[in-house]
Amino acid sequence: MKRFYLALLALPTLVFAEDTLSSGDTAWMLVATAFVMLMTPAGLALFYGGLTRSKNVLNTIGMSLGAYAVGTLVWVIVGYSIAFGDGDIIGTGKVMLSGITSSSLTGTIPELLFVAFQGTFAAIAVAIASGSMIERVKFSTFMIFAALWIVAVYAPVTHWAWGGGTTLNFGEMDFAGGTVVHLNAGVAGFVVAMILGRRKDYGKAAIKPFSPVLVVLGAALLWFGWFGFNAGSEVAADGTAASAFLVTNVAASLGVIGWIAVEWLVYKKATLVGGASGAVAGLVAITPASGSAGVEGAIIIGLIGGALGFYGVAKLKTMFKVDDSLDAFWIHGLVGIWGSVATAIFIADYAMPENYNMGSQLVSQFSAIGLTIVYSAIVTAIVFFIASAITGGGRVDEETESRGLDETVHGEKAINL
Amino acid sequence: MKRVEAVIKPFKLEDVKDALAEIGITGMTVSEVKGYGRQKGHSELYRGAEYVVDFLPKIKMEMVVTDEMVEQVTSTIVEAARTGKIGDGKIFVSDIEQIIRIRTGETDNEAV
């Protein structure tokens, strides 16, 4: 019963007993979906684009734009069916959204709107993973990878956490996608970075960001969109949505403070690229807890999230020899693990389930983390090999890499003076 | 005739130019240059990675003066460009063999 209750907590969409449409909920979810849409081709695109070298800015932005377009297509064809169709291990029966009409409901909102909302999650997940592979992966390989990854990795993992699958659901609390989106994408990026190998210049020449200004602007747009991401995951316009909105804002702010405070201690400087990265780390950390943590919890979750992001990127990363170009694993994966663990620890009184046992909830969280890491790592590798095989290798040639992908692959430059 | 080359901090250019104008220096050539001396460069930080930038932006002023003016010019530059902190720059003085003003054909001291 407890497990059932927690499943409800993690998946508000199942909670609704009534099946009448609420125009208030629907209005909010239309807006929330639009918010989340902005995160990928604008927020993440500028955040990642600003961090990339000037010769690869357009290629990097193109991966966010491309991931969004491909993700949307794949989601309506088969992704939604796998994630939210009926079935235990994977869902079926809703290919091409069959059987869904404009009067079908998910809870109190039209199911078509739920399809759109969840589709924006699938798209941003694979766009996040692109950050690990940029500056050397073929654009064509990435586009095919994005489609296959959503089908084979993102949609099944979503089904287990939120879509009604029971065998692989461990009773994890993941309100808005801590393991489903962030850990999943971070692990996927890391695995592809390992397969691709390091960039030619990695560890040898200075790889400086194109524009810290764009990094901050992109992070701010992500922050904005994240209100839809987290508060929208309630799938209703109610008190829990308001709470998710507030704690999201608090944790992101504390992420900024956590990152630059540690940076100040270590380097005697508070950088803006660091502050923006800290905001994203705080947002990642609060995501799974956004429906259950209170403000006190959000302060600690965000602060540690920001500090941990810095520690991962500045220290732990050097211990692994993997060239995770834009640190997708360290900010979304490592901090995502922290957020998932913290979800079990920091629960507001009003969200506390009856007979709550933190120990057994932590076991549930770790089980879901473990499953996500193992499944995502193995299937991402398989999917990437397939995408590489189709495009005759997944990596661009040496000359293309050193000239930059913007001109050679896209025939454009980020700035024409 | 001597050539005076002074490498100074960019924000001191206006002060030095004004001080030189006061003692009667009528012309100079200025260029934006990069370099470093004993102070070495500075470092930039991006996401926990530290990059050392060797070359710092500087201004190089060049002017040619009569032998009698050299000492006054150099002491004026030293006074106007000094902050007392590392990286204030250097002055180089060298001989000039010949000067010709293109417009009039005047030479040497008349052409300074």
UniProtKB/TrEMBL annotation, chain A:
Provenance organism: Sulfurimonas gotlandica (strain DSM 19862 / JCM 16533 / GD1)
- Stretches assigned to the Ammonium transporter AmtB-like domain: 27-414
Q: Which UniProt keywords apply?
A: Ammonia transport, Membrane, Signal, Transmembrane, Transmembrane helix, Transport
Keyword Ligase found: no
* Cross-referenced Gene3D superfamilies: Ammonium transporter AmtB like domains
Question: Which residues belong to the signal peptide in this entry?
Answer: 1-17
Q: Which InterPro entries does the UniProt entry name for this protein?
A: Ammonium/urea_transptr, Ammonium_transpt, Ammonium_transpt_CS, NH4_transpt_AmtB-like_dom, RhesusRHD
Tell me what this protein is called: Ammonium transporter
Q: Name one Pfam family in it.
A: Ammonium_transp
Q: How does it sit in the membrane?
A: Multi-pass membrane protein
From TrEMBL, chain B:
- InterPro entries (UniProt xref): N-reg_PII, N-reg_PII-like_a/b, N-reg_PII/ATP_PRibTrfase_C, N-reg_PII_CS, N-reg_PII_urydylation_site
- Cellular component terms (Gene Ontology): cytosol
Q: Read off the SMART domains from this record.
A: P-II
Question: In Gene Ontology terms, what is one molecular function of this protein?
Answer: enzyme regulator activity
> Which GO terms of type biological process are on file?
regulation of nitrogen utilization
Keyword Transcription regulation on this protein? Answer: yes
The record ties this protein, via Pfam families, to:
P-II
Name the UniProt key words of this record, in alphabetical order: Nucleotide-binding, Phosphoprotein, Transcription, Transcription regulation
Q: Which positions carry O-UMP-tyrosine?
A: 51
| Quaternary structure annotation from Swiss-Prot or TrEMBL | Homotrimer.
The family note in this entry says: Belongs to the P(II) protein family.
PANTHER family linked to this entry: NITROGEN REGULATORY PROTEIN P-II, NITROGEN REGULATORY PROTEIN P-II HOMOLOG
Q: What is the protein's name according to its record?
A: Nitrogen regulatory protein PII
Where does this protein come from, organism-wise?
Sulfurimonas gotlandica (strain DSM 19862 / JCM 16533 / GD1)
Encoding gene, per UniProt annotation: glnB
